[in-house]
Write a structure and sequence with these properties.
Layout lengths: L5 E8 L1 H4 L7 H11 L2 E9 L3 H12 L4 E5 L10 H9 L3 E3 L1 H8 L9 H4 L3 E3 L3 E3 L8 E4 L2 E4 L3 H11 L10 E6 L5 H14 L4 E9 L2 E10 L2 H16 L3
Parallel strand pairs: 1-2, 1-3, 3-8
Antiparallel strand pairs: 4-5, 6-7, 7-8, 9-11, 10-11
Helix pairs in contact: 3-4, 8-9
Organism: Candidatus Rhodoblastus alkanivorans
Protein name: Competence/damage-inducible protein A
InterPro entries: CinA (IPR050101), FLAD1_M (IPR056596), MoaB/Mog-like_dom_sf (IPR036425), MoaB/Mog_dom (IPR001453)
């Protein structure tokens, strides 16, 4: 971990995302949430409900970033294989966790706790539970991997539970500057010069279409407020020179 910098990846698990049936709202939410507490999301991956692919992606990401947040695949059905894949990635066993079972029984009658529902109490050995006040079925945290539900509302309360326990980096500041109706090609060279002059900042140009016309914005991001302010002023001056 570089001083002041904490990194993360998001691993979205589920055939329904890759098929287009379900829109992935979780990765966007997680990335924005983490940004507010000084954690940079550096990579987002989507993998199918295939154990080997989950294990391979998880091992690649957890060795590269400070945290990995997964969503999806911890429900009661046969295709919910995330817990098993995580256990395999870490080389640990997996079994029914008494703590998780007790949580399920807060919401489900003992006579209704069938084999399928009990699957949600299977937790890799050594993992800590992640609270789920909505439906009680917990997520879990093992090593630097936080495993959460795919249902957005449930994922969000799980993230709230783990956030205070995460290492927070220096918060990333940002400045957004409208490009005054100029096309990107008009300021691309000037923007490159700015990026060279301020290597400690992330500088990007982002076009959008509004009422049939391109509308461009330049976004500067960094941790040093004084450097960010200086770069923003130079950006505005550069744009004014192109009027």
């Amino acid at each position: 971990m570089v001083e002041g910098r904490v990194t993360a990846a998001v691993l979205v698990i589920g055939d329904e995302i890759l098929s287009g049936r379900t829109r992935d709202a979780n990765s966007h939410y997680i990335a924005h949430y983490l940004l507010q507490i000084g954690i940079e999301t550096r990579e987002i991956r989507v993998v199918p409900d295939v154990e080997e692919e989950i294990v391979a992606a998880l091992n690649a990401l957890r060795s590269r970033y400070d945290y990995v947040f997964t969503t999806g695949g911890i429900g009661p059905t046969h295709d919910d294989i995330t817990a098993d894949a995580v256990a395999k990635a870490f080389g640990v066993g997996i079994s029914e966790d008494p703590r998780a079972l007790a949580l399920l029984l807060e919401r489900i009658k003992p006579e209704d706790l069938n084999a399928a529902r009990r699957r949600m109490a299977r937790i890799p050995d050594g993992a800590e539970l992640v609270a789920n006040p909505i439906s009680k079925a917990p997520g879990f945290w093992i090593g630097n991997v936080v495993v959460m539900a795919g249902v957005p509302a449930v994922m969000q309360v799980m993230l709230d539970d783990v956030a205070p326990k995460l290492a927070h980096g220096v918060k990333i500041l940002s400045e957004t500057i409208d490009a005054l109706g100029l096309p990107e090609g008009a300021y691309a060279a000037g923007l490159m010069d700015l990026a060279k002059a301020f290597p400690q900042l992330s500088i990007g140009s982002y076009p959008s279409l509004r009422e049939g016309k391109f509308f461009n914005q330049i976004v500067l991001r960094g941790r040093d407020g004084d450097v960010l302010a200086a770069a923003a002023e130079r950006t505005r001056a550069m744009l004014r020179g192109l009027d």
